[in-house]
Each structure stands twice: as C-alpha cells, then as structure tokens.
Amino acid sequence: MEKINGTDLSEEQQQDFELLKTYWLNDFALLSEKTRSIVVESFMGIIEPFLNDGILRRHFTGGLSDELIPENCIANNKIVIIDFPIKAYGLAGTYAATIIKTAFQQALERRNIERETNPKPMALWIDEYQNFCNPLTDSMFQLTARSSWVASVYITQNINNLRFVMGNNQPEARAKSLLGNINLKIFCSNADFDTNEWASQMIGKHYVEVQNLNYDKDMQMSKTKSKELRDKVAIDTFTKLKTGKKENRYSVEAVVFKSGKVWGKNGDNFAIVKFGQRIC
C-alpha cells in the first residue's frame, strides 16, 4: 500500500492515486509542448488557491471537524455560518463557501426521512446567490430538495445576475430552469427591466373591464364597455414598491408568488405584502 506524507491510502484513494500517476507520468509526457502548457495552466488555475498560505490551505487541508459534518448539524440542531467574505478573500472565499455548500447539498440528498427517528427540516440560506451558484448541481438539487425537507433561500438582485454566471451554453434557459424549480418567489423593489418583465409574465394576465367614451358629430357622448387582457402586475409596479427606511415608516413591500396557491379574498395567484424592517 502506498503512502502520501506518511499516511496510508484507502483502496479508493489508491485507485485515484494510480489514475493520477498514470496520467502525469505517461499520458501527459506524450503530449505536445503547447498542449502540455495549456493543461498545466488550467490545472494551476484550479489548485493555486489551495497552494498559497491562504484560507483554503488553512481550513481545507487538515481534515474535517465533527461540528461541520452536515449529518451532525442535522442531528444536533446546529446552524453553520460561512464567514469567508468575497470582498476580503476574493476567489478563495467563493471556493470556500461553495465547497461547504456542495457538501451540505450532497449530504441532504442522501437523507432518508423515513429512517430518521426525529426528522427535522433544514434550510440553505445564501445571500448574493449569484456568487455561489453552480448551474448544474443547483438545478438538480432543487428537483429533489423538498423530498429531503430542505428549504433553499437564494437571494439575488436580478435575473441577469444568474444569466451572467450560467456560462456560454444557453444561459437564459439555464437561469429560467433553476428559477422554475424555486417554489416560492418574492420580488422586492427592483429597477431591472428583464427581472420585472419576467415576473410580470410569470404571474400572468387577466381581463379588465374598460369604459370607452365616444362623441358623435353633434358632440353627443356615448359609452361602451369592453374587456382587455392586461398584466395582473404591471412591470412598473415593481419599481414602486416601498423599500423601508424612515420615509416609508420602515415598511417594506414585496410581490409574492407561489404556483398552486391563491392569496387573499380575491383568490389571486400573487399578493402584495408588507413587513416591518425593524425587529423591535
């Protein structure tokens, strides 16, 4: 059995090691110089944050403490707060938060609610979600999150933030696919036209009775009524929602939408709600 830094490798690790050794000592050596330089640059771009004396090397190369094991968080009713600000740590901060987020998602997908003696719902809460979005795994996770008793709360400013991080392969379709798997959607005040248009179209249209006034040549007025199909929530509605602060008496407004639910006495598929900005 091989050892790395004096540590015995498991059977699975041994297989991974042999695969890597074969590639770097055999396959890689036979590549052209130009191809090798491309491979090296790509490889170094991935591992470089882990080589420097930074947060990734300090926090992710020395094993995993028990309190961070996702299954233990579930069993012990723990809240894990990831404190690696991107403005302070840059790309390394994104890697750090995404590693823990991915491990959390995978652990929750392995859950078997029926076998747990005291199953508990879990929450994955991510602000500035566009910085930690994985176009492939997040969409797949959301397909089964509810069956794993996971509430995912993703907060971002607008839909274009998500399109931007979806890559070059059909970014709009990927963004909408992910959003389509988010059940409850809350829209606060927003000046982004694409977001407001998408929200308005998703909520849908309804018929509105309009009255037309007509005048004949003798200036005699006549009234006619008709129905027009209009947006339930006009695009400019999202730009007029209250944003809290003193001038709004610390009241925030939002448009709430959830497929399959009706709201209020009118039985609409949306509601304009208010909530206080102050805790006390």
Question: Would you give an account of this structure?
Answer:
The radius of gyration is 27 Å and the shape is elongated. It contains ten helices and nine strands. The longest helix is centred in the N-terminal third of the chain and has 19 residues, at 33-51. The protein has a three-stranded antiparallel sheet with strand order 5-8-9, with no helix packed on it. Strands 1-2 form a two-stranded antiparallel sheet. The chain has a domain at 64-182. Strand 3, helix 7 (137-144) and strand 4 form a beta-alpha-beta unit. By secondary structure, it is of the alpha+beta class.
Describe this protein with a few key phrases.
280 residues; alpha+beta; three-stranded antiparallel beta sheet; two-stranded antiparallel sheet; 10 helices; elongated; P-loop_NTPase; TraM recognition domain-containing protein
